[in-house]
Amino acid sequence: MKIHPLWEDYPSLKTELERTLDLMETSINLANKEVENAILEMIHSGGKLLRPAYLFLFSQFGKKKDTQKTIALAASIETLHTATLIHDDIVDEAATRRSLQTIQHKFGKDVAVYAGDYLFIVCFKLLAHHVSSLKSIQLNANSMEKILDGELGQMDDRYDYNISVESYIKNISGKTAELFSLSCFLGAFENNAAADLSSQAKDIGLNIGIAFQILDDILDYSQNETTIGKPVLKDVRQGIYSLPLICAMTSHRQELMPYLDKKIKMSDEDTQKIYDIVKQADGITKARILAEEYTQKALEQLSKLPETKENTRETLIKLTTQLLNRQA
Amino acid sequence: MKIHPLWEDYPSLKTELERTLDLMETSINLANKEVENAILEMIHSGGKLLRPAYLFLFSQFGKKKDTQKTIALAASIETLHTATLIHDDIVDEAATRRSLQTIQHKFGKDVAVYAGDYLFIVCFKLLAHHVSSLKSIQLNANSMEKILDGELGQMDDRYDYNISVESYIKNISGKTAELFSLSCFLGAFENNAAADLSSQAKDIGLNIGIAFQILDDILDYSQNETTIGKPVLKDVRQGIYSLPLICAMTSHRQELMPYLDKKIKMSDEDTQKIYDIVKQADGITKARILAEEYTQKALEQLSKLPETKENTRETLIKLTTQLLNRQA
Fold first, then answer.
1. Least CA distance to B148: which residue of chain A?
2. CA dihedral B212, B215, B217, B221 (to 10 degrees)
3. Of A23, A196, A213, B164, which one is least surrounded by beta carbons within 10 A?
4. Can you tell me the distance from the alpha carbon of A83 to that of B144, in angstroms, rounded to the nearest whole number?
């Protein structure tokens, strides 16, 4: 069992995350052992488990803690996240993820479709068997709906040169931030935290999630430069225009337009050009400023949280600062 | 709103099925209106709505009926079925279904992946908001797990010349019969039918579902002959060996083997040859005998059901006889 090295600094979280992986593992049972093993391998490939981690941290604000239920909720959310990753890999035709062959690459898209579907079901099953109220099943279902609405919203905005920063934020709020928000909220709510704390947790999770996704989109530009030597710009190739490009469009629209025609398959030279223009137009810098705004908002909200015996507030600030300043 | 003409003979069922479609429609809300419309179009394209129909019929054995809940359960099950159809169309690269363009063909597999995922969530949402107990959410989750296990089991058995009749029945029990079984069971159970009646309903649904899928697999062979003039054999082309072929293998293994090599893409001549051999080996006739066994078992079980004021038993026998003797 491999846990991401990030958690070495957080020993009690590390234990809870390991128990989460254990529960996920025992919940996955397929007659098709090859596919079962591929799913288990993916689960143990060292993903960051950020959503479960935030869920555990916010559970510490609870007045009546239920560790077993909290682990089940964490497992359910990470299982949902894994399902969407498997399906994302079909859409992206990705060959590898976390240095492993993707399920779609190893077994074909047919198996990947059903393997992702199966994990959606495992997510339901974990909720259905470990949660004590229909209310929390409803909250989960509503959040999941927002996540898919965000994914499909992003699909709708592909190849749209005129996508606004607002539409971009709306899409990433759904496809990424909603699950962070749900994790923070459920951690607090399901452990009987005060109502206003659960509501704060939801807001904080949303801001963390938005900053996290903007940073991810920045890394799609900046990281390639340093680590691969040339820009990959996976999103742009699929017509998904993320924040650095959207920011660059305001001043360098004329220069960018010729490369953004959906009828033409993008060459490596095209993406190099796009990258150069985005950089020249300070698109990455401007995106960083917006990420920083959401980060600061989250940190400010975190600093107002009450004391706990586990010193949760400081742990949350440390983790969030670390996460939203990462370089890879 | 188009309801399959089959239901003209069953006016009260027709009304309930229309209400089911209404609820499905109001439960589907996406920012991406193009995809929303494609999903709604698919829902209103005249599918048979068999699973909801059986659910309504078995609800009539309930001692304390809850029509609103029953409609929600029916909508949830048909939504799940629609989700799997959208994903099946990705796997099959199907261009049309029920004379409409498939979502994968119209919008690409990316949209189809997320559209199917979205419907899984809607199914879950319907259950979460309309069902009164965690118990029935658990039953649904467990059944859904069997369905996906069946789909993945079938994937695992692709291109396996040695697949047994037992493995075939196991796979179709999961991928098809389980949802019939769940529908019959939930109809009874969720309306407070006697425990032994709910348990019978489950068995009956399983037998109907198995017979239904065998008949579908027979029609993949026999129907093509009469309606298209040449065999399409969609399943065989994908390495899925269904009952007519499995039955033919016992006597005509040598003749069939050369055409079943997965490394070779099957030509129309190959499928014509396979079809000829399967027919010559009485594969279709033998498959019909097994379908008939499951049909008879179901009809016998149905005939033992108690009287209801709606004359449910006779309706169930009429519908099941009609369904399992269909020619298309």
1. A118
2. -160
3. A196
4. 15
Per-residue pLDDT reduced to its tens digit, B18-62: 999 999 999 999 998 989 999 999 999 888 999 999 999 999 999
Phi, psi of B231 (to 5 degrees): -75, 135
The DSSP code for A5 is G
Query: b vs e for A220-247, b when ≥16 Cβ sit within 10 Å of the residue's Cβ?
Result: bbbebeeeeeebbbebbbbbbbbbbbbb
Distance of residue A313 Cα from the nearest chain B Cα, in angstroms: 33
- Coil/strand/helix, residue A6: helix
Per-residue pLDDT tens over the stretch A99-153: 889 999 999 888 899 999 999 999 999 999 988 788 889 999 999 999 999 888 8
What are φ and ψ of residue B229, in 5° steps?
A: 90, -20
For the stretch A200-255, pLDDT in tens is 999 999 999 999 999 999 998 887 655 555 556 778 888 889 999 999 999 999 99
Q: Please give, rounded to a whole number of angstroms, the shortest distance from the CA of A268 to a CA of chain B.
A: 23
Per mean pLDDT, which of A117-131, B218-232, B293-307 is the most reliable?
B293-307
Closest by Cβ to B113, choosing from A91, A138, A140: A91
Domains and CATH numbers, chain A: 1-132 (1.10.600.10), 161-328 (1.10.600.10)
Is there a contact between B55 and B183 (Cβ–Cβ < 8 Å)? yes
Q: Rounded distance, CA B140 to CA B134, Å?
A: 10
Nearest to B284 by CA among B273, B276, B294, B272: B276
ipTM of this predicted complex? 0.88
Contacts 24+ apart (CB under 8 A), A268-277: A268/A230, A271/A231, A271/A232, A271/A233, A271/A236, A271/A237, A272/A230, A272/A231, A274/A231, A274/A233, A274/A236, A274/A245, A275/A221, A275/A224, A275/A225, A275/A231, A275/A233, A277/A248, A277/A252
Beta strands in chain B (DSSP E): 96-97, 100-101
Among candidate residues A232, A211, A236, the one with its CA nearest the CA of residue A223: A232
Q: Which residue has the tokens 């507030």?
A: A313
Three-class DSSP category at B30: coil
Give the per-residue pLDDT at A132.
76
Is residue B204 within 8 Å of residue B55, measured between CB atoms? no
Rounded to whole angstroms, the Cα distance separating A78 from A91 reads 20
Tokens of B295: 């049909």
CB B274 within 8 A of CB B237: no
pLDDT score at B281:
96
**Rounded Cα–Cα distance for residues A324 and A299 (Å):** 10
What average pLDDT does this structure show over A67-94?
93
Q: Do A81 and A178 meet the contact criterion of CB atoms below 8 Å apart?
A: no
Q: Which of A32, A128, A133 sits opposite B138 (nearest CB)?
A: A128
Going from the C-alpha of B217 to that of each of A20, B6, B179, B182, B288, the distances in angstroms are 42, 21, 17, 22, 10
